[in-house]
């Protein structure tokens, strides 16, 4: 074991002894973390913003998982499945659709009323206000459903 009580300068690599394809690689304004020669994480300050932290930098089948604070329900907190490009939230194992949330509600925090049925919008966009739910059904084409109390 070696101890350092100060700064360390190195040219490019930190290798794991006995495992030459598990490394931390330093380049100018960039750090890459590899295990088994797969690039799991890349941190890069580009020449201009936005800068990037990239998970699964080598486009391998590496899932991104954020653990929750619990067992089963809510764990994992979030899982991105690299093989299907699907995201699961709140305890979803393999997500079954593009966004798979194990909950009984989703929330869009801010209301937004299109100015007209031909207001700017993308197909599939959803908005709401106190009286209507709005859905953009084609580029710049909105439809709405009235809301009522019961």
Compile the SSE list and pairings:
Elements: E1 13-16, E2 19-27, E3 30-35, E4 38-44, E5 52-55, E6 64-66, E7 78-81, E8 86-89, E9 99-101, E10 126-128, E11 132-138, E12 141-146
Parallel strand pairs: 8-9
Antiparallel strand pairs: 1-2, 2-3, 3-4, 4-5, 6-7, 7-8, 10-11, 11-12
Explain what the structure shows.
This protein is mostly beta strands and 150 residues long. The protein has no helices and twelve strands. A hairpin with a 2-residue loop joins strand 1 and strand 2 (19-27). The termini are far apart. The mean pLDDT is 93.
Name the descriptors:
12 strands; about 150 residues; 4-stranded mixed beta sheet; mainly beta
Roughly how many Å apart are the termini?
A: 71 Å
Question: What characterizes the major β-sheet?
Answer: 5 strands, antiparallel
Return residue spans where pLDDT drops below 50 for at least 5 consecutive residues: none
Helix content: under 10%
Portion of residues in beta strands equals 35-45%
Which whole number gives the mean pLDDT? 93
Q: For the CA atoms, what is the radius of gyration?
A: 23 Å
- Could you spell the SSE succession in H and E letters? EEEEEEEEEEEE
- Number of strand elements: 12
- Backbone shape: elongated
TL;DR?
This protein is mainly beta and 150 residues long. It contains no helices and twelve strands. Strand 4 and strand 5 form a beta hairpin.
């Amino acid at each position: 074991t070696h101890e350092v009580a100060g700064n360390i300068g190195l040219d490019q690599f930190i290798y794991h002894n006995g495992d030459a394809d598990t490394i931390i690689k330093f380049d100018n304004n960039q750090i890459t973390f590899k295990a088994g020669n797969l690039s799991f994480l890349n941190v890069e300050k580009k020449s201009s913003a936005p800068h990037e932290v990239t998970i699964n930098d080598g486009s391998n089948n590496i899932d991104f998982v954020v653990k929750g604070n619990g067992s089963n329900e809510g764990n994992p907190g979030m899982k991105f499945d690299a093989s299907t490009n699907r995201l699961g939230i709140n305890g979803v194992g393999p997500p079954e659709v593009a966004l798979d949330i194990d909950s009984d509600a989703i929330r869009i925090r801010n209301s937004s009323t299109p100015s007209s049925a031909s207001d700017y919008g993308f197909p599939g966009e959803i908005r709401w206000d106190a009286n209507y739910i709005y859905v953009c059904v084609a580029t710049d084409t909105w439809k709405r459903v009235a809301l009522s109390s019961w």
